[in-house]
Amino acid sequence: MNRKICVVTGTRAEYGLLHHLMKRIIHEPGLELKLIVTGMHLSPEFGLTYKEIEEDGFVIDEKIEMLISGDSTTAITKSVGLGVISFADALERIKPDILLVLGDRFEIFAVTQAAMIMRIPIAHIHGGELTQGAIDDAIRHSITKMAHFHFTASEEYKNRVIQLGEQPETVYNVGALGIEGIRKTKCMDIVELSDSIHFQLEKFFLVTLHPTTLEGSSSEMQIQNLLKALDQYPDYQILFTKTNADTDGRIINKYIEDYVERNPDRTRVYTSLGQVRYLNAVRHCEMVIGNSSSGLLESPVFEKPTINIGIRQQGRLKAASVIDCSFSVDDIKAAILKGLSASFKEEIKSAPLLYGEGNTSEKIVLILKESKLGNIILKKFYDFK
User: What is the reported pTM?
Assistant: First the structure.
């Protein structure tokens, strides 16, 4: 009998990372993919990106509506509660052998709670990392404590998961799925990319700013300062991708939309570029600007400078291509200037990569297939000797 692996995705970024892993599960004898889609994938405001998943040939077994209109802390909290209830029903119908989840989103937090109480073994990807400026940090570590298999992106993160009390034999350093995605994604030249987004690209910045949910300064001030800094570089085009469904996300998106309306000749904003176009945008841009994890994971592979603003990604491993700065206008301007310099671009060429070699899916699938599940639910806390 095939072992059912139930994968859950709630955002375009999650799906972009999970895509090749899901394909490998489908084609692996002895494994069966079950897919639950939730969160932003089902929202018209965020582009109904579940359609992209279906267009890629995947069968969606369950669609879980859990987003409550609004991006306040109250709305997000209620969404988690609604998600737990709805995921319980979906998991009961699917009856998976293993629930496979990635990252630190509140949607994933909800399904993991349901699975843990229902005694379903949980495999967690990208545990052990730090994002000290966001609630994601607490969510990620909470998922680690509910999970039974741990697939980390580096040795440092593996050690941190063990430090949280997980048995060493259940923690595997498999590298980052994003590196594999780059290796397997179709290359587009800049003309093909331009045609696909209906915007003629030349020199451009790729900008994604998410709310920093635990940082003291307001999202309104943060996006205002970023846009003021970008005004200082009028010779560069700007591609914006919108924020996730986080607290204050709508504030950031509204400022970006207004900015694009005022600067139609050199700017565009996209709810979702999709994985292929996004990675090719990274390939051809001058630099990545904002506070998305893709600036730390994917951009270094392309030897592109990343301007990492604020504390959202504080605590994560960072390649030599990442320039940290605060949300002050002057700091952002100075960081961009440094990233554009010939000396910095030369300095980051062939810099060591921190997140594996691109065979992550193969490693994960082998472990999911061969691991014994008999007493996996009975977790013991591991104490350092």
Answer: 0.80
pLDDT tens column, 295-342: 888 899 899 999 999 988 887 889 899 999 999 999 999 999 999 999
pLDDT (tens digit per residue) in 124-166:
999 999 876 667 789 999 999 999 999 999 999 999 999 999 9
For residue 353, give the nearest of 184, 105, 183 by alpha carbon: 183
Element (H, E) at 343: helix 342-347
Q: Which residue has the higher pLDDT, 76 or 323?
A: 323
Please, are residues 211 and 135 in contact by the beta-carbon 8 Å criterion? no
Query: Whole-angstrom Cα distance, residue 152 to residue 360?
Result: 10
Residues 73-104 as b/e (b if ≥16 CB within 10 A, e otherwise) read: eeebeebbebbbebbbebbeebebbbbbbbbb
Q: How far apart are CA 300 and CA 317, in angstroms?
A: 12
pLDDT at 29 exceeding the cut of 90: yes
Q: Report how far residue 157's alpha carbon sits from residue 165's, in angstroms, rounded to the nearest whole number.
A: 13
Contacts 24+ apart (CB under 8 A), 24-33: 24/361, 24/362, 24/365, 25/365, 25/368, 28/365, 28/369, 30/2, 30/3, 30/369, 31/2, 31/3, 31/5, 31/365, 31/368, 31/369, 32/2, 32/3, 32/4, 32/5, 33/5, 33/7, 33/58
**Pairing assessment for the beta strands 31-38 and 237-241 based on DSSP bridges:** unpaired
**Is the pLDDT assigned to residue 281 strictly greater than 90?**
yes
What is d(CA 86, CA 306) in angstroms, rounded to the nearest whole number? Answer: 38
Mean model confidence pLDDT for the chain: 92
As a whole number of angstroms, the distance between CA 29 and CA 210 comes to 39
**Which pairs from 151-156 meet CB under 8 Å and 24+ separation?**
151/123, 151/124, 151/125, 151/126, 151/127, 151/360, 151/363, 151/364, 151/367, 152/126, 152/127, 152/128, 153/126, 153/129, 153/297, 153/355, 153/356, 154/317, 154/354, 154/355, 154/356, 156/128, 156/317
Residues 6+ apart with CB under 8 A from 42: 48, 50, 63, 64, 65, 67
Q: Give yes or no for a contact between 120 and 99, defined as CB atoms under 8 angstroms apart.
A: yes
Mean pLDDT of 261-280: 92
CA dist list (Å): 298 to 30, 105, 316, 333, 347: 31, 19, 14, 23, 18
